[in-house]
Amino acid sequence: MLAGLLFAGCATSSIESRRRERSSAYSALSPEMKALVDDGQIRRGMPQDAVYIAWGKPSQVLHQEDDRGLVTFWLYHGGWLEETRYWPYPSRVPITDYQPRTYVSAEITFVNGIVESWRTLPKPTY
Fold first, then answer.
1. Could you give the CA distance from residue 84 to residue 108 in angstroms, rounded to a whole number?
2. Which of 2, 46, 84, 105 has the smallest set of CB atoms within 10 Å of its CB?
3. Residue 88: its pLDDT value, please?
4. Would residue 125 count as lying in a domain?
5. 88 C-beta neighbours (distance < 10 Å), count
6. What are 84-117's pLDDT values in tens digits?
């Protein structure tokens, strides 16, 4: 179990590791944007690299082109395990099962590589 936790810890990305990965993009940011990125925050006007460093790789990327230019949408997914309990016949012992559920937890709209808008979305209730 400990080896699994250590492996999972190494596999996760952090702001620090993403900052090293895109060090030239990070060094080109203004001091104000660097402070936002370091706190994991994003704002309108940020370039895609700054958002990547602050929030990490998106779960999904969509593109379209309109009169504003290239419009890119980054979607971040959240998730949870939904618990279901049932009693199989003829057993008198209940069984608990877990199904993964995912949803779009945040979306960012870039126009020509710059954040135009963003929003976070709540976990749905069923």
1. 33
2. 2
3. 85
4. no
5. 9
6. 988 888 888 889 999 999 999 999 999 999 999 9
Domain range enclosing 31: 2-120
- Number of structural domains (the chain) is 1
Q: Which residue has the tokens 């209730």?
A: 125
CB atoms closer than 10 angstroms to residue 8: 9
Whether residue 107 lies inside any domain: the answer is yes
Cis peptide before 122 (omega within 30 of 0): no
Strands (E), 1-126: 60-66, 69-86, 95-111, 114-120
Return the amino acid letter for 69: G
Q: Does residue 126 lie within any of the structural domains?
A: no
* Contact assessment for residue 106 and residue 118, using Cβ atoms and an 8 Å cutoff: yes
Does 2 score more than 70 pLDDT?
no
Which among 32, 58, 62 has a CA at the least distance from the CA of 44? 32
Whether 72 maps to a domain, the answer reads yes
